[in-house]
Amino acid sequence: MNKEPLSIALVGNPNTGKSTIFNALTGLRQKIANYPGITVERKVGTTIIGGVLHKVIDLPGAYSLNYKKLDERIAYETLIGSYEHEEVPDLVLVVVDSSNLDRNLYLASQVMDLGIPVMLVLNMTDVAEGKGIKINPDLISSSLGIPVVAISAKNKTEIEKLKGEISNFDLSKPEALKWNPDDSLKEAMDLLINDWIKLHTDIPDRAQAIEALRLISEGDFKDAFYTFEDEGKGRATIRKAQQIIEQGGGNPMAAEVLLRYNFIGESTSEAATHSAQSEVSITDRIDAFVTHKVAGPVIFTLVLLFMFQAIFSWATPFMDMIDLLFVEGGNWVANTLPDGMLNDLLVDGVIAGLGGVVIFLPQILFLFFFIYILEGTGYMARAAFVMDGFMTKVGLHGRSVVPLMSGFACAIPGIMATRTIENWRDRIITIMVLPFMACSARLPVYALMIAAFIPSTTVLGIFTLQGITFFGLYIFGIVMAVFAAVVMKRIFPTGQQTPFIMELPAYKMPKWSVVFQNTAERGKVFITEAGKIIVAISIVLWFLASFPKTEMPQVVQSESTEYDSSFDITENPESYQLRHSFAGRFGKMIEPVIEPLGFDWKIGIGLITSFAAREVMVGTLNTIYSIEEEDGESSTLKEKLINDVNPETGKPVYSIATAISLMIFFALAMQCMSTIAIVKRETNSWKWPTAMFVYMTALAYISSFIAFQIGSNL
Ligand SMILES: Nc1nc2c(ncn2[C@@H]2O[C@H](COP(=O)(O)OP(=O)(O)OP(=O)(O)O)[C@@H](O)[C@H]2O)c(=O)[nH]1
Ligand SMILES: [Mg+2]
Predict the structure, then answer these.
(1) pLDDT of 315-352, one tens digit each?
(2) Nearest Cα to 511, choosing from 124, 59, 101, 161?
(3) Which one of 72, 255, 390, 586 has the fewest CB atoms closer than 10 angstroms to its CB?
């Protein structure tokens, strides 16, 4: 029994179930999905086994310790003990996909070289069984010389079995290098370790062999954990080590790989047997169609079209219910509380602001529900595969597809997911164009404008004009992202093109508990996070829009010298008050700037507040229009927008041209502080977020200007 608290790291190839095991052990909810490259950060949790509290570290997937990408590097640094000077883990669980043993064991054999206690977790035994693969864990264990446990992480009792193995694990230090490097490789490794690694890093002794092998096959170092006093000498030493191998008749890039595969082959040839059924798997049969050159992109487009049409129409009944709830709730509060400031603040400020946004919860939930299904089934990886050729042409990369698709939910996880892109130039371009993807925060604005101003005519039997406009806005975002990428590709010198290799995972039934929990989680985040900002902004806004109190002049005053030229006898006192409030004056001040886009000062106020977060726009409009509304009347925001009349011209404030111009502005402008912050963090400089803000917002202004000028002159 292990009585000491351990730090246990989970490593393995991408998509092998590390995070699933992590979640089962710790009770946390790391994101999991059926495609490689979900986890891009370390996550730490704890688990109690036999009364002892152990630390568990979930790591991004890696194919090998010779890392190429930022996410793989995090795994490597953790294992060699150079991650923020943290200790090397006490125990490593190498999680492998049992249905794909050979390739998975490559990494396992590298990890074994680190001299850390290793346990092999053969996961997805259920999948392997389905494929007719039989594995003998004991045989693998005896030939590799490490404990092996076979489980399916979906099964609770098997997780308990894993815990039992951890608890009984023998932690004595294993011998290093079970495979035999040949003489020249050994000599080259010694040279690098003694003349370079020991002198210039604090990598512990037992991890030095692995670092030496990495340097030999890479031929260079490009990383943070070296002290670079003597870079030239480092390169020379690596070169010398490579020459030793070349003189022995080997190839420095392949020497380790070949020897290692021999070792794995010998150890496992008997351990896994395939039953002789060579029938084409279901996955292959589906893929013949889904990844087809022509059918693939068509299916991809249809999937998106269906998804956005469904979001739009399925959510409507729920949205009507929420709407009713808030309108009635507002009325109830208005009639129950005594008249006065608190009443106004609650009804016109908080309830109106919040209601304006909560109403979009059903659409947000449907959006995430579909995204989690696409991720859980494994379709996401197909989307990347199908779009790779196109992506490369426009200056992106196959690996950009998944981050871009995540951008439909929110730019922030999308930007994090770009860590799986190897090439810095590809990565930065993907980050810079990603916020064009229509994120869920834009959804409320789009939905409001469409519901109010686009007719709900049926098209082609199942689609509606509203649904198609909605889909069109998503396509517009994609087109702009592509266009921006093409331009940026010209600006930035082309780096070396890295080939696109992404495994297509087997199709799986999504784990429904994961889909529902995650969807609910996102709904909660939307309500609480957006709710917080919106309540705060609503209160401030209510104040700014309600003060200073101004009395509307009486009609008889019209002959007096105090005649207010902007005064209009059809205007009600509430709207007069609003125009003369702080917010109204401010809106009026910026009106000249936004007027050419078709926006009045009320929209202007909304634009300003929405630079904090886009969805705040709707709450702001709701607050403003509620304040303006005559007491006693109450209608939905949609109706208020349709009926709003400009007192100076007597025409409706919103025309279709205004609505379209506004949607275009929201499609293109960089109105999200959190995105700016994450881009700063991921690129480590203010240069990129600043450039992003300027170019996106300028593009938004110009495009809305053109759209409105054309639209209103038709
Ligand atoms: N059938 C089956 N599916 C599993 C099992 N373990 C995990 N999965 C599924 O496999 C997929 C990948 O699981 P993750 O836990 O995200 O894998 P990961 O290793 O963390 O992936 P990366 O973070 O991308 O490296 C998900 O769809 C899981 O639901 C298992 O034992 N059996
Ligand atoms: Mg993971």
Answers:
(1) 888 888 888 888 888 888 888 888 877 888 888 778 87
(2) 124
(3) 390
